[in-house]
Amino acid sequence: MKSIIKFLLPAFVLLMACTKQDIMPEPIGSPVDGTKGPIKTWQQIIEESPYTLFKAALAKSGMDQVLKTSNIPNYTLLVPTDDAFNAAGWTAQRINTSSKEELSAMLSFHIISSRLESASMQDIRGNIPAKTISSRQLDGHGNWYKRYNDYLYIGKYGDSLMINGIGQNKWGVVTPGINGMVYPISHVLMPPTESMWEYIENNPEFSLYRDAILLSDSLYTEMWMYMGIIDLLNSGTGIAPFTLYLPTNEAFHKSGFNTTEDIYNYCMRSWPLPDPDYDENLFYQQPVTAIDSILFPHGTEVYTTSQLFGEAELGPVYFSNDLLDIPYLLSGMTLYKGERYSTGPVHISLDFRNNNGQPMIRRYGTNMPFVPLKSKDHRVLNGVIHVVDDLMQLSN
């Protein structure tokens, strides 16, 4: 497997969709003229722009004054057009009747507390995680004892500006200001509201995956083992976000698992588990259930290195444009090199391919056929979910 980056380095990140409409959105505004330096502030650019609903929301929320008096020298503003606001239900009437708090929460997800120059991003393959000024308390979600900071994953794919997997405008359509950058976009951005575990529990088509996770957890508990998979899926402070390739019930059916009892019987074939031990390279090896040996390559294999330290907040989050743009880097990529007498190496156990603009995946190191994503780029609190109709097995 290829050693490319460590797990906690914020790997490239963001967006792409696979339809022509997503990859090649209609341009909004005009491409930047790179021959002149900026002569206006972002406030002046917004005031003179045709984006009346953004201006109205900014003024009513009072955020224009808050940003003006902050100590941050530069901002990047992702400004939805009036059509985007109306399509998302943010009409002039709704803006006029919304509270300052509601408007501030919506707008803060569109404002990044740094200057993102398109010229600096255009040669980067994959996406960049960008921290917005949106910060919130996640009561009732996972184990969050600190405020949750919202990130956007921004990048270039083809000639499009991508944000969280969605084509938002033609690349290079931006107005630079003295104190910030203004990018017009074609959709209102929506912050995530569910953790992975909540997404799984709220969608019946993943009931067998949920049951498999709960079953394995009960078996580990029976042997006085703690794996932390449910905590990983639930999210929380100090747990890194990641990418989950979530198998549907149909994926289980294709592999002969029609009921939870089928999954249990499969686990019993290799039960009880052997005791943990060190391998020939002196890496600590934790035995896993038979079903987890299939499910770990779907993303939860990162559990051994998912702990974050200090102010770190990022992890291996890859949107569909990453899978299309850098499949050779992600395939079998080493996320953690391992440490002797401790956790062993952690890899992405998947192989990726760009099939005419469609991301395809299979188990790494096998000649199993590549399979498509059923759906993609479901942004959740602790990363991103891509849905698959197949289990990533070593063989049929």
TrEMBL record:
Q: Which PANTHER family match?
A: FI19380P1, PERIOSTIN-RELATED
**Lineage of the native species?**
Bacteria, Pseudomonadati, Bacteroidota, Chitinophagia, Chitinophagales
* Keywords on record: Signal
Pfam families this protein is in? Fasciclin
Q: Which residues does UniProt assign to the signal peptide?
A: 1-17
What's the name of the protein? Answer: Fasciclin domain-containing protein
FAS1 domain: residues covered: 38-189, 193-392
InterPro entries recorded: Adhesion/Biosynth-related, FAS1_dom_sf, FAS1_domain
